[in-house]
């Protein structure tokens, strides 16, 4: 029988800060006496709210001894603060470097990067530039290169490469988001499946089903797919293996087990 939780879980809070003049959504829990700072880099969609449960669980499992911050991508947000501008993979990488240099420059605690999916690739690029600041990096279900056998990646790539199809897909997403909330939630729940948590469904309804967000999701995907046709920098990864860890999933088409063999 599971032991009941005696104290309520610490709740993550949302904060909007300006990073290099770009509005940036953060989800964070600050420790009173931190021994390290964990920076969680989102995948794509880069919506910090998707990671609420993860941030809170990390804080709890680390005994409240670490400050946890999840950072979202520019314009993957409820409001179109950047007035329709589209941001590439490398602009999002620069954004994360700027955040660390701006917000964590004077941090006395070691920084641990945790990147999910394409966030793992972003984390690796950030680590290359800031090796003196980053203590360790963890890649969760890392998307490091294209999977030619993935039908899903092929379909997303086909849409993302077409400006017209991307606009139509984004308009359709915003239409779903404009419906009565109960209808929107029902569609999202049916489309994404019952495995998605209430938190994830809420984040999809509030952030993802926005024209500006979906346009940026697809534009970033296009630039990801262009870059990740290249082989990852396996030489760098192997040279820094004592400062890295990767978690692959048996059924994850973004980071199949064949990529794990290449890491080894």
TrEMBL record:
GO terms for molecular function: lipase activity. Keywords: Hydrolase, Lipid droplet. The keyword Hydrolase applies. InterPro entries: AB_hydrolase_fold (IPR029058), LDAH (IPR019363). The keyword Aminoacyl-tRNA synthetase does not apply. It is found in: Lipid droplet. GO terms for biological process: lipid storage. One of its GO terms (cellular component) is lipid droplet. Gene3D superfamilies: alpha/beta hydrolase. Belongs to the AB hydrolase superfamily. LDAH family. This is Alpha/beta-Hydrolases superfamily protein. It comes from Zea mays.
């Amino acid at each position: 029988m599971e032991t009941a939780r005696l104290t309520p879980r610490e709740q993550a809070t949302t904060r909007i800060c300006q990073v290099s003049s770009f509005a940036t959504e953060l989800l964070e829990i600050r420790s009173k006496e931190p021994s390290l700072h964990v920076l969680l880099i989102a995948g794509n969609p880069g919506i910090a709210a998707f990671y609420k449960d993860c941030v809170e669980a990390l804080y709890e499992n680390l005994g409240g001894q670490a400050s946890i911050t999840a950072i979202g991508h520019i314009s993957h947000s409820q409001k179109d603060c950047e007035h329709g501008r589209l941001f590439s993979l490398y602009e999002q990488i620069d954004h994360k470097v700027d955040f660390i240099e701006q917000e964590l420059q004077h941090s006395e605690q070691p920084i641990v990067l945790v990147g999910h999916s394409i966030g793992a690739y972003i984390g690796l690029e950030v680590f290359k530039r800031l090796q003196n600041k980053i203590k360790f990096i963890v890649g969760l279900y890392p998307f490091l290169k294209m999977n030619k056998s993935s039908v899903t990646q092929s379909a997303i790539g086909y849409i993302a490469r077409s400006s017209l199809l991307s606009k139509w897909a984004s308009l359709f997403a915003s239409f779903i988001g404009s419906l009565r909330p109960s209808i929107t939630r029902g569609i999202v729940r049916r489309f994404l499946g019952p495995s998605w948590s209430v938190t994830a469904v809420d984040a999809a309804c509030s952030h993802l089903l926005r024209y500006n967000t979906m346009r940026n999701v697809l534009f970033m995907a296009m630039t990801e797919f262009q870059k990740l046709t290249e082989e990852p920098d396996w030489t760098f990864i192997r040279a820094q293996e004592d400062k890295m860890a990767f978690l692959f999933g048996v059924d994850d088409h973004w980071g199949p087990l064949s990529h794990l063999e290449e890491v080894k």
